[in-house]
Amino acid sequence: MTSADNLQAFKRDGRIVIVGASLAGLRAAEALRGEGFTGSLTMIGDELGEPYDRPPLSKQVLTGWVSAGDTTLPRRRDVNAEWLLGVPATGLDLATNIVRLADGREIPFDRVLISTGVRARPWFVESEAALDGVFVVRTREHAEGLQRALAAGPSRVLVIGAGFTGSEIASICRERDIPLTVAELAPAPLVGALGAMIGEVAADMQRAHGVDLRCGVKVTQLEGDAQGHFRRAHFDDGSTIDADVAVVALGGIRNTEWLRGSGLAAGVWGIACDTGCRALTLNGLITDDIFVAGDVARCPNPIYEYRLISLEHWANAVEQAEVAAHNMVSGQADRWPHLSIPLFWSIQFGVNIKSVGVPTFADEVAVTQGSVSDHRFVAAYGYRGRVTAAVSFNNAKWLDHYRNLIETAAPFPPPCPTPDQPADMKPVPVDFPGPTLLAQGATVVVTGHDPGERRVTAAQYHR
Amino acid sequence: MTTTETPDMLRRILDYSSRADPYPLYAELRRTPVARQEDGSYVVSTYRELTDLLHDPHLSSDVRNLSRPMPQGQGDATPAFINMDPPEHDRLRRMAMRHFGPPHTPGLVTGVEPALTSAVGSLIDDFAGKEQIDIVDDFAYPFPVSVICHLLGVPREDEPRFRVWVNDLINSIDYDPKTDPKEKLEKGVQARKDLRQYLGGLLEQRHDRPGDDLLSRMANDDGPDGRMADDDIVSTANLLLIAGHETTVNLITNGMLTLLRHPDVLQRLRDEPGLVVPLVEELLRYEPPVHIIPWRAAYSDITVADTVIPKGSQIMLMLASGSRDQNRFHDPDRFDPDRRDNQHLGFGSGIHLCFGGPLARREAQIALGELVRRLDRPRLVADPPPYRRSPVLRGPIHLHVEQAAG
Ligand SMILES: Cc1cc2nc3c(=O)[nH]c(=O)nc-3n(C[C@H](O)[C@H](O)[C@H](O)COP(=O)(O)OP(=O)(O)OC[C@H]3O[C@@H](n4cnc5c(N)ncnc54)[C@H](O)[C@@H]3O)c2cc1C
Known about the structure:
The structure holds two protein chains of two kinds.
Chain A: H1 4-13, E1 15-19, H2 23-34, E2 40-45, H3 60-63, E3 82-85, E4 89-93, E5 98-101, E6 106-108, E7 111-114, E8 118-120, H4 126-129, E9 134-135, H5 140-151, E10 157-160, H6 164-175, E11 180-184, H7 191-194, H8 196-208, E12 212-215, E13 219-224, E14 230-235, E15 240-242, E16 245-248, E17 252-254, E18 266-267, E19 270-272, E20 278-280, E21 286-292, E22 297-301, E23 307-309, H9 314-328, E24 343-348, E25 351-357, E26 364-371, E27 376-383, E28 386-393, H10 399-407, E29 428-429, H11 435-438, E30 444-447, E31 455-458
Helix pairs in contact in A: 2-9
Chain B: H1 7-14, H2 23-29, E1 34-36, E2 42-44, H3 47-54, E3 59-60, H4 88-97, H5 108-125, E4 132-134, H6 135-140, H7 142-152, H8 159-173, H9 182-208, H10 214-220, H11 230-261, H12 263-271, H13 276-286, E5 293-298, E6 302-304, E7 307-309, E8 314-317, H14 319-322, H15 357-374, E9 379-380, E10 400-402
Parallel strand pairs in B: 2-8
Antiparallel strand pairs in B: 1-2, 3-5, 4-10, 5-8, 6-7, 9-10
The structure holds flavin-adenine dinucleotide (FAD).
């Protein structure tokens, strides 16, 4: 699309296909219609039913307050799309502009948005993952199953992994007075996302609520009984624990396998794109008709040194979807960059946790307001002397201020005291788990010698 | 954006002659988003800068952080949480909030709705046969007063007594040393004392014989933050009583005035009662009851819009100006109950966001809905109506309306 006429014609009669019909996909579809796109719109999704919201799945749904079926995402406008649900896309052909479906259908497009998100990382031994009583939580069906298992009054629940989802599930088990063990490889819960200092606070919170929290240990085996029901877990320190429900909360795997061979820069970290949500090819070239949004996107953020960052945040999915939709129907000069500061929230053990920025992009952290022991505070994160993120526990109203600090590259630690400044706000090292824990291996290798033949090929996909 | 000195502008806004329509002056004021005054204080008038400040943890509500003392101190009484900073503010507000709304008392506002409707109904019943009504004296004033008394647990028969106190107290806040007799100020001091003593007495009774009202609940509840001290309960009750007064009165009166000035909207509201919900939101933006937060203190140096406000400075927040900022609201001087993107500053923002907001909203919705439904072809007697003195809590002192006879 170069000329204005072409663009008008595309907006009127173009064909847009969205692969991944969940939060980002739906919001993009709505935004496309809002932008005046009247052409054909096809929504492809491998889940059945209308797009629904995931955050309640590990919160209100598990308490039984909200049924899994009541999490359908509200519609902001009629999207007038053709919905191809219950069938996954299996391929994308950039040469012919076709999306291939598992049932053999081929769907042509002028522009495509990829929003296939992530799926739960399953337990690594398939036969053990298949035991009755072993759960992951990513979909409505998962949450429904786990809610039923919790309602049945298990003697003990084992949560494997104390990231946000695992911690939220732990919180709910305690709320329901279910005996609970949480196993985490890192030294404390939430360490991977928020660092060691906040991790300690989270550990205190869990223990204060009666969680049997075991850190620095690995679950090695899930053992079932003769009926195929989960009964016992084995740890790498030789200990065991008896439980009848195990929740595997080990993060997600990005849904990019279906793009293998497409030529896009898609891999374990997601699909690389520019700030305009246009996908990159493996060689790092920008495509013009392929857009990405949501959990599956890996987008550069100028504030964070243009690093490609993938986020699994609700607000990020919505904002990227809106930017992508806008850019899909706009000419070069009118395109928007996705430049927002990441925002995340969670509720666990009665505490509202909220963050702005990218806490992992930090070398130091300091409590700047409130009191850690009361679980009411704000902690600022800094990287080489500037503020890059902040996390609040029951103190979210201040976060707009910290977003300003991040946006204006304010000095870290913030020099000005507040009335509620703690006595000790000395920065401490942020202490994220070492690179070995997070290493994912190389994804590409470079081949060729002359400038005309230098190319990147995928080295290793998906573990 | 630079800081220039525009003291004249502020003086003109505060001058009583501008009360009926301060909005053109606000527009001029917004040309300098952060304006330093001769006396070293700062006036902030644009939406973005106001919201930044209201979320800035260096903005203090505690007078002791001003480098210059306030002209009239609150005396030695325990301040209410509105004049405190975290963590004390958070703790007290939390303790009071337990009894005033979700999550611990979710049904409070909906629970009083029948009482609201019947109070409104009986006040309007009294209009019968009258050709001329004063929306303020006959309606907008007595209504919220009876509501807050009911909620707090203040006996009906005592209403007239403390209505005088509250009146004296509010008058003393508007005290102008140049024109007013000192008596006004002294009356206020006395009223403040009397009111505290009166509320203290009520509280004492509630310790012995708790009822279902707010005073009883605050007096007898042990939450995670412990039990509220009697002094703090009295300050909180005091705050709720006073805040529950002028603000809601002005919201209802400004609302009726605006509707009478927009007969098409008035007619629409008659036809579609549900319109009252977005309409009250738009009122809070377009004709809010609280125009100014007259002082806040810079706890440290604060940078807003490239201006450094030095530690200890007094900061004046022009909320009503922010809600008419053309850089934030489309066509801001138009009263548009269909407005969608309406994040007004009518209740402030941040940790001091109006505590009684949900109640005030419901009061105004029910009051305006019923007035419009039951008044027969109402007509404004004088436009503009006479205004109260205060530029801070701005609203008509009377709003005479004629209705068709019979
Ligand atoms: C339990 C839980 C709790 C959460 N809580 C919070 C929270 O508190 N705060 C917060 O900020 N975020 C939270 N999140 C994250 C938030 O839900 C995600 O960021 C958001 O769902 C991302 O939306 P998305 O559309 O990008 O991806 P997804 O929601 O993952 O949607 C992707 C869709 O694409 C489908 N799909 C995948 N592959 C294919 C294919 N090949 N063909 C067709 N369809 C395909 C998937 O089945 C899915 O329906 C939570 C997530 C979970 C699971």
